[in-house]
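not sure who needs this but someone in the group chat was asking about YihY/virulence factor BrkB family protein from Sinanaerobacter chloroacetimidivorans so here u go. i didnt clean anything up, its just raw.
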Amino acid sequence: MSRKRFRRMIFMIIKRMSEPYYQGVAAELAFFFLMSLVPIAIILGELLGVFSISMSVIHELLSEYVSPEIAKSLSTYLSYTPSGTISVLFILFSLWAASKAQFSMMRISNYSFTGHPSGRGYFRERFRAIKTIVFTLFTLVFSLLILVYGELIIKVFSAYVTDFLGLTFSFDEAWYLLRWPFAMALYFFMVSYNYYVLPTERIPFKKILPGSILASGGMLLATWIYSYYASVFANYDLLYGSLAAIVALLFWFYILGYILVIGIQVNVVWDQAK
């Protein structure tokens, strides 16, 4: 990419984000992210329960990569013990509630590409958002399965290689090399899939890659910076008291939502800036 094209993209994105429509979209996404947490926890808990995985795995990952305030808030919302007797109707209701953020992203994507947020009508777009959140949840479950049972899978594979092929296979090195790159690849695929399917107008996959790369890397970088800031500098307890954890969580969601919207704008202006 030339320097001139890069500058043109920056100016185009700033101009688009200054439109009245985009002034509150990050706050809207942050609100719907928060509203979707409990329904997502219910569905995730039931899916992970099938594979004998508790929600504590998610809590451990959160405590390792986000600030204590955010981890505390998320642990509160994501605390769910699978019952095994949940009804299909309740699952459908949970999916409907969990897809609110997806539906909001869908409307933002439609407006960014076509200028009309409605797409093909409310109910058709709503059910399309449910399909997207189902795929996203299964991707999350598969990623957690790899993190939890990947060690066992590699051990079985290493035993097969050693016994039948007569080759030495280092389990520790393979697991160290494959675990997180595979999880990161699934994370990038999940972000790219959402950018690809959310617009009603079908966009070629290669045209959503720039925004997917920016959003994937940007959300990870923003999470790391904000976690450090919230742990070292911010003192939400002093200002918000008992609401400090929720405020810290909402502000994090606001940053993530803003980055996701910027990623959509990158996909829109990528060809226009040539």
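also Residues 3-272 form one domain. if thats useful
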